[in-house]
Structures are given as structure tokens and as C-alpha cells.
Amino acid sequence: MKLISSVFELCRQRDKQQHFWLSLLIVLAVLPWGGLALAAATSAAAGLAKEIWDHCYGTGFCCYDLLADAAGIGVATFIPLWLM
């Protein structure tokens, strides 16, 4: 039960929400021009670059931010399927 409450607490953090939505939007923006693989790779690279920047100059590297990025990418891959 503690694990579930910890996950919900992470989901409420504004930073994690921003990672999720920005990753999702990057995939949807790149998808029409580059296909799903390029869109997902672009979004993942942007999220990783942000975490590396945070490690060097910001608040520090956070694996949970990368998980939020992955969740956004995952949801974005299903949106075109839902629209068909």
C-alpha cells in the first residue's frame, strides 16, 4: 500500500506532470513527419538531455523524471490508434 501512495505522490508533482505532457507532445509533433520510431526516440533523447543538464547544472538527475517521460511516450503511441 505504501508503494501505491508513493506512486500517487510522484504523479502529483508538477515536474513529473511536465515531463509526461512534454514527452507526449513531442511525440505527437514529430509523428507526422518522422514516424513513430523517430518521434519516440526524439522525445526520449530530449528527456535524457534534460536530465543530463539537471545533473550538471540543475537539481540533479532523477530517474522518476525519465519514467514520467516514458509514460508520456507510451500514451502518445496509442493516441493515433484511438483516433482510427
Your description of this structure?
With 84 residues, the chain is mostly helical. It has one domain (2-83). It is built from three helices and no strands. It has helices at 2-12, 14-57, 63-83. Helix 2 (14-57) crosses helix 3. It is flat, with a radius of gyration of 14 Å. The model has no long low-confidence stretch (mean pLDDT 89).
Report a brief summary of the structure.
With 84 residues, this protein is mostly helical.
Give me the number of helical elements: 3
Range of helix content: over 70%
Radius of gyration: 14 Å
Mean pLDDT: 89
Low-confidence stretches: none
Compute the number of structural domains. 1
**What class would the helix/strand composition place it in?**
mainly alpha
Biggest sheet statistics? none
Write out key terms for the chains shown.
84 residues, mainly alpha, 90% helix
Topology:
Elements: H1 2-12, H2 14-57, H3 63-83
Helix pairs in contact: 2-3
